[in-house]
Amino acid sequence: MQRASSVKFLGLFLLWFPGIAYAVEALDGGLPEGPRRQLNMALKAWNENYGAHVRAVRWSVRGKIGTENLSFGAIREDMTNPARAWIPDIDTYHPENTRAVRLDRSEGIGPDAIKSWKLSTDKAVQEDAKYYIDIDWEQDGKPFRTTAVASQDKLLYDSMIFNSRLVKKHNSCFYTAILWLWGDISGEITADAKLLCEGRSVTSCDKACTAWMDLGDAKVECDSNKVSTTACQMKYVWAWGTPLASISFKKDSFEFKVTGIGSRGNGNGSCSLTCP
What we know:
Elements (H helix, E strand, L loop, with lengths): L1 E9 L14 E3 L5 H18 L3 E11 L7 H8 L6 E4 L9 E4 L8 H14 L6 E9 L2 E9 L4 E3 L8 E4 L4 E6 L5 E14 L2 E13 L3 E10 L4 E11 L3 E6 L4 E6 L3 E11 L2
Parallel strand pairs: 2-3
Antiparallel strand pairs: 1-17, 3-6, 4-5, 6-7, 7-8, 9-10, 10-11, 11-12, 13-14, 14-17, 15-16
């Protein structure tokens, strides 16, 4: 199989840059093992990859939700307030330029996008939220804070962590796994060509293209055609993004356009199959 591709990732790649692997102070306050492990892994991954200008400094459990004047409704309202939500703006090819943007100050993010973000955040912060966690960050030495919530078993939401992803690829016409910062799969995009032959002659050019993503959106479009009596060629385009990214498909130019903030990526390519 011959492959050619053009890829643009605005997300978190599996990279490591010596000298910016900052330790994160953890004041667990009784946080259970599951969410504590996810949180520590996520913040370590952030600092190792994007700690040049924005880094996690410490986290601490403020308390249990439903006690100590921490009502579930008040916390949910706090987490969906654009004036308190910090979102990463990430370019994988230039990690040294990574910044955090407060949502109400972000250019180009309209009311519909914010409404969609609020709905997805509200869905993530479920009634089984048990722990309220403060995460302290620094951007070029200036502090800011985000709010995370966790259940007894896992981390449920934080505006910085849940708008960042890792990306892993393997051999295929095209495949990418979109990962949470702690390593679990958040989504997948696959584009594969299928070829049927009779002897050396092509009888059918087909395709198998799928995309899905949790707490975000992933799309793929494929077009497979016979290019000779013995070969098929498939071209594909793909895109993904966290909730504050917007994806649109241009059919006439066969491409996706991705705008917004958070983690996002898009690209295109082609592959050819020949009858043996």
